[in-house]
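Run Sodium/proline symporter through structure prediction, thanks.
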Amino acid sequence: MSVSNPTLITFVIYIAAMVLIGFMAYRSTNNLSDYILGGRSLGSVVTALSAGASDMSGWLLMGLPGAIYMSGLSESWIAIGLIVGAYLNWLFVAGRLRVQTEHNGDALTLPDYFSSRFEDNSGLLRIISAVVILVFFTIYCASGIVAGARLFESTFGMSYETALWAGAAATIAYTFVGGFLAVSWTDTVQATLMIFALILTPVIVLIATGGFDTTFAAIELKDAGNFDMLKGTTFIGIISLMGWGLGYFGQPHILARFMAADSVKSIAKARRISMTWMILCLVGTCAVGFFGIAYFSAHPEVAGPVTENHERVFIELAKLLFNPWIAGVLLSAILAAVMSTLSCQLLVCSSALTEDFYKTFLRKGASQMELVWVGRAMVLLVAIVAILIASNPENRVLGLVSYAWAGFGAAFGPVVLISVLWKGMTRDGALAGILVGAITVVVWKHFSIWGLYEIIPGFILGALAIYFVSKAGSPSKGMVSRFEAADEAFKAAH
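Sure, done. The structure for Sodium/proline symporter is below.
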């Protein structure tokens, strides 16, 4: 690898730009609210694109195209499930959560919101939800670090161990310095880069393989089943893939974007922008994997790296088909996807440790700048643990993501959704929902019952636990009046 390598220069420029944005955000960070939620100042475009970019991690450009390349269109059910889930999350949760967090102690984090919404003075709800965040997000962060390491490994010929640290360093740098504003501003840049890469790459692959007719003929020749949405699937398999959509209701890094919007009125416009971006990205990513089948069938001599690890399909196509400078920009899109999600996750873990443990239990009177610096220290701590988990080179990106996604979707999804829709929900109901959801995911995953994705039983049982336990008690008058006031404010804004 020579220093004049255009891809390397592109990467360095890109990373330097992201870190520069981090330093710009550093100057706007005066207190913990700024560091954790950007002072609730995000407009609709930044809210939309940062929600999208924080959601679509390295799996969008590695895990999903790899799955389609291996199995054909039958893997695209996951994309359909995600689109439906994301839309329902914007529709039912986004605006309501923005208003409810403001009415419930101006909550900065999910555990903070749960504590205020359900008047939990014991701190139990806060501790359990913060622990769930730390456990599943550290696994999620590890998936981002694996994706970054794979990128550096295959682009620059580094060893996996070196690539692991190189890939994580830049993200840690700007999250550490700039906090939420840095993460949201860089997400907007990264979302733009990702959509550019995912629209351009399939078009160029299509041209390289001779247009639609030739490409489709080559894919059919390889295996006619590639076109069959139902190939090798079962009813449980399709339900499992569609079930990914349920995860949206409980992802703290996406919900944080809703909480940070400048007003509930920005949400409708943000929803339209975010869904358009998401649909274009998912169609592009499926096309990359699908057209890649035709390209590598026609060019078996360069198919080695993809045969060895199918999650490299986008990386190899970018390197083979584009001028090295353009390839550098396209490969930066993977880095963008990894960095945007990893930075959000590091920040949510940091805010859980700072706001929900340090400030609540250790230093109630801590100054704002002390809390910001504790938050920065926690970013480093979580990153190091995630790097240790990621140090096993056998890890697959999609496998790590699916476990963490299920954990959040089942533990927090029903609690968040029901808490913004039903005033009869109680603290014990919320506790039961989190515990039943999280435990179901861990147990179901361990025994892999019926081959069903663990988020589905976790979500259903969590929701039932909330309903029945809440029905056994009743919410206080304060809880009901705050809910009604927030609900009125939400309706008035529409």
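The chain has a mean pLDDT of 86.
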